[in-house]
Amino acid sequence: MEALFYVFSFIAIFSALMVVTMRNPLTSALYLVLCFFALAGFYVILDMQFLAAMQILVYAGAIMVLVVLVIMLLNISRIKNIKSDLHQKIIGVLISLILFAEIVLYIINGAQKRPSGIFTHALIKRIGNTQVIGEFLFTGYILPFEIASILLFVAIIGAYLFAKKKF
Fold first, then answer.
1. What is the pLDDT of residue 47?
2. Overall number of domains in the chain
3. Do residues 67 and 55 touch, judged by C-beta distance below 8 A?
4. Which has the closest alpha carbon to 51: 128, 152, 117?
5. Would you call 111 helix, strand, or coil by DSSP?
6. Which of 36, 45, 73, 105 could form a disulfide with 60 if both were Cys (CB 3.0 to 4.6 A apart)?
7. Exposure of 128 in the CB half-sphere (CA atoms within 13 A)
8. Are residues 59 and 118 in the same domain?
9. Residues 99 and 123 in one domain
10. What does the pLDDT look like over 5-53, one tens digit per residue?
11. For the chain, what percent of residues have pLDDT higher than 90?
């Protein structure tokens, strides 16, 4: 299991670095799909097969089809001379340093915490993590779940109207 973790970690870090360093947006999007598959591998290692399947179906499937469609629709690959200002580079370096500091602080101060609540590992193994996720989504988190669905619906309508005006 530990070897799989290192393999998925290498794939995720490599593909994430390739996403931000590639000049071709379509190639960058394909590396993002690879990163999503590596994240699904992490979910499998953590015994969360439902989340792994949803990661592949929703993110690596549907979202990336949408991203690739937008890239091809806007024909971003033809944009050659993108100039970046000095302040953009400074902001990027500052955000990178802050993120790196957060990671270091988490590694230094982060302690392993035991799961708390009514769902123990034995209970999750017995009833399955899909049922636990469903109970959380449709009981305690129904309002955020419904707001997310409304936001996705509004985004679909906006994308349709935007594409309709283009043609």
1. 83
2. 2
3. no
4. 128
5. coil
6. 36
7. 6
8. no
9. no
10. 999 999 999 999 999 888 888 888 889 999 999 999 999 998 888 888 8
11. 23
Look at the block and give the residue holding tokens 């340093």: 97
Residue range(s) defining the domain that contains residue 47: 1-111
- We report the CATH number of the domain holding residue 2 as 1.20.120.1200
C-alpha of 98 from chain center: 20
Q: Which residue's structure tokens are 């015994």?
A: 47
The confidence score (pLDDT) of residue 4 equals 93
Per-residue pLDDT of 62-101, as tens digits, reads: 888 878 777 777 766 555 556 667 888 889 889 999 999 9
Q: Per the structure block, which two tokens stand in for 110?
A: 């982060």
Contact 21, 32 (CB under 8 A): no
> Per the structure block, which two tokens stand in for 47?
């015994």
Amino acid identity, position 141? Y
Give me the residue label for tokens 């034995």: 122
Q: Which of these three, 91, 111, 131, is where a domain ends?
A: 111
Indicate if 66 and 105 belong to the same structural domain: yes
Residues 70 and 99 in one domain: yes
pLDDT in tens, 137-148: 888 888 988 898
How far lies 152's CA from each of 63, 145, 165, in Å?
11, 11, 20
Strand, helix or coil for residue 70: helix
Determine what percent of the chain falls in helix, strand and coil, rounding each to the nearest 5: 85, 0, 15
pLDDT at 43: 92
